[in-house]
Amino acid sequence: MPTEYIIVFITAPNEEEAAGIGHALVGERLAACVNIIGPVRSIYRWQGRIEDEQEVLLIVKTKRVLFERLQERVTELHTYSVPEIIALPLVEGNEAYLRWLGQETE
């Protein structure tokens, strides 16, 4: 069965925390690449109130089989009590890039 790749979205309160998470994920081979985009404006309901905050967005490229470990690691590093960690399937991609992604993750 071919390797299944995913894109994981994670929001963080600031670029410093996002960079720390990104370095840990790549350094521990739980991700091949992490992009940090920001600021993004997030509007959401939390504890009965509507919040409107600036955050940064991490876009993480990895293998589906690593998601559980990645999620555990992000939860350890993240300052939010309920961090956003959601994954989408990577349906198609540059074959050479996907080969590199597979080589750079466990």
What does this entry look like structurally?
The chain has 106 residues and is of the alpha+beta class. It has one domain (5-104): Alpha-Beta Plaits (2-Layer Sandwich), CATH 3.30.70. Helix content is 32%, strand content 40%. It contains three helices and four strands; from the N terminus they run E-H-E-E-H-E-H. The chain has helices at residues 15-27, 67-77, 95-104; strands spanning 5-12, 33-46, 49-63, 85-89. Strands 2-3-1-4 form a four-stranded antiparallel β-sheet. Strand 2 and strand 3 form a beta hairpin. Helix 1 packs across helix 2. The longest helix is centred in the N-terminal third of the chain and has 13 residues, at 15-27. The chain is elongated, with a radius of gyration of 14 Å. The model has no long low-confidence stretch (mean pLDDT 96).
